Known about the structure:
- By secondary structure, the protein is α+β, with helices and mostly antiparallel strands.
- The protein folds into 4 domains: about 10-110, Butyryl-Coa Dehydrogenase, subunit A, domain 1 (Orthogonal Bundle), CATH 1.10.540.10; about 130-240, Beta Barrel (Butyryl-CoA Dehydrogenase, subunit A, domain 2); about 245-395, Butyryl-CoA Dehydrogenase, subunit A, domain 3; about 405-429, no CATH class.
- The chain has 13 helices and 10 strands.
- The chain has helices spanning about 10-25, 40-55, 75-85, 90-95, 100-110, 115-125, 245-280, 290-320, 330-360, 365-375, 380-395, 410-420, 420-425; strands at about 130-135, 150-155, 155-170, 175-180, 190-200, 205-210, 220-235, 235-240, 280-285, 285.
- The chain has a 4-stranded mixed beta sheet with strand order 1-4-5-8. Strands 2-3-7-6 form a 4-stranded antiparallel beta sheet, with no helix packed on it. Strands 9-10 form a two-stranded antiparallel sheet.
- The longest helix has about 35 residues, at about 245-280.
- The protein starts with 7 loop residues before the first helix and ends with a helix.
- The mean pLDDT is about 90.
Amino acid sequence: MWDFETDPAYQAELDWAASFVREEIAPLRYVISNVLDIGDPIRQALIPPLQQSVREHNLWATHLGPELGGQGHGQLELALLNEVLGEEPIAPIVFGCQAPDTGNAEILAHYGTEQHKQTYLQPLLDGQIFSCYSMTEPHGGSDPTAFTTTAVLDGDEWVINGEKWFSSNARYASFLIVMCVTEPDSPAYQRQSMIIVPSDTPGIEIVRNVGIGDERPDEGTHAYIRYHDVRVPKENVLGRRGEGFIVAQTRLGGGRIHHAMRTVGMARQALEMMLERALSRRTQGELLSKKQLVQEMIAESWLDLQQFRLLVLQTAWKIDRYQDYKRVRGDISAVKAAMPGVLNRIASRALQVHGSLGLSNEMPFVDMLLNAYLVGLADGPTEVHKTTLARSLFRDVKPADGLFPSQHIVAQREAALARYADVLAAHGR
């Protein structure tokens, strides 16, 4: 049972990771054009040696079991590590736990054949290739019941046709895992299947690579894809036909916790910068740290951060304790729903304290704000998770028996007077 104190041996590894991220990984953002571009010689000269250091500290892909080259860490340990990695976007790649590859690896480990594991999973785990999760569609968003991309079995091959939107890392991926409608006449959540598609398969058209924020056109990493009669072997389906929605859940529960703890790391970084600025900048004859409104912004940010962090860690602990994502589904949705607001509020306050410098591209706050919107949409929009949380809360509540609520003061008073009538009468009341 976790009692708010991390095992000293693991804490030592976390301390090493924190120094490693800040001293060795953070500077790379200024010298590597795109960390996903394995063809970049500068990237290849710098990243693999750092990955080897991570392996030597037994922190490589720790979400995976020993049989897959990881440590098999539980969600609580993973959460604590991801809090450290959240300070630097490149860090997950150096530690072998970047999205969407982690989720795709879990799918392949659970549902892939031995051939799939040899061809796709092992190189993915070794950091030799990247993958893409191609699910969202331009007209239906992330709602699988609205998907229209189809895969039709023609002899020994699936023939895929349709469009996918925001397929992350497609331009650098060696393979894609595509959600397709294979059972159009089945119930809504039993119509889709997950299919492996090698990226060099004829018929894959990247219409454009979509960027976020001020990224230049066609230089983003989120692809708008059209599939034109794309043919792959029928053995490339992951799981049974029509189980695409179930397969998708394999990759989402833990992943949401990891995203949340990385958000904690990013928000903590914003708070640290806000504190430094308040103690460094003077206005109207005194430090910003002396201004009560600035003090309020810092206090509110600390409260936001600590409350959210404890919620995430408690949820991670529950996942480890119960080993049942369904049982903790409401908690996971709560984490997902709270995440964008926490980052948005803290990053906004930090930007404000930095003034025009905070608004400029010489500080990271605008990127943090964009990321707050991104985490509010990725893995299901915030609004969906709020309804999931509410439904989970309703499950353990019974409606009131009578006309008035069970905590109605009048009814409770009457019940109390009836229960203690003898005592009251004995004392003349």
